[in-house]
Design a protein that fits this description.
Helix content: over 70%
Radius of gyration: 17 Å
Order of helices and strands: HEEHHHHH
């Protein structure tokens, strides 16, 4: 429940930032490892960057706020916010690391789709490996989940390209 509270508040931070910038939030999806807000029509890379960073920044502020109290009863909430902030900054789709792509686009650097996919797959495999080495099934399953997302994403892109032709 503590992690769910941290994840939902993290996602709400994305939604608040999107609303502040004038975007509509259509839905919030509960996924196997967190939530995902569906935000319609982001038109600028700087807006995407601010929306993507809102969640991790909120999680880090919540982490620092709970740590400063020194209350042992808030330790789990503190840890949850720290982990959510750090994990979400991995530059892997669908995490908030997409902020890196938005930041690169702002300075007119574009990663080709294949390079982004290779990076995503490599980081997923690293997580699987680290999870196995540390005998941490959560990290291993998270890496597998991210790897599956890359496979599904590639299939959808192929399907869309086939239907356009």
């Amino acid at each position: 429940l503590i992690y769910m509270l941290a994840v939902i508040s993290h996602e709400c931070a994305h939604c608040v930032m999107a609303n502040m910038l004038g975007y509509e939030v259509c839905s919030i999806e509960l996924m196997p490892y967190g939530c995902r807000a569906e935000i319609v029509g982001i038109v600028s890379h700087s807006d995407e960057l601010m929306i993507a960073l809102a969640g991790p920044v909120f999680s880090l502020i919540a982490y620092m706020g709970t740590e400063v109290t020194g209350l042992e009863s808030l330790k789990e909430l503190s840890d949850a916010n720290m982990y959510i902030a750090l994990v979400n900054m991995l530059p892997v789709y669908p995490l908030d690391g997409r902020a890196l792509g938005a930041a690169l686009e702002i300075v007119d650097i574009r990663l080709p789709y294949w390079a982004n996919t290779v990076l995503n797959i490599a980081l997923s495999i690293v997580l699987i490996f680290l999870g196995c080495m540390a005998e941490n099934p959560t990290v291993t399953v998270f890496g597998v989940f991210l790897l599956l997302v890359q496979h599904i994403r590639a299939g959808v892109k192929t399907c869309l390209a086939t239907h356009k032709a």
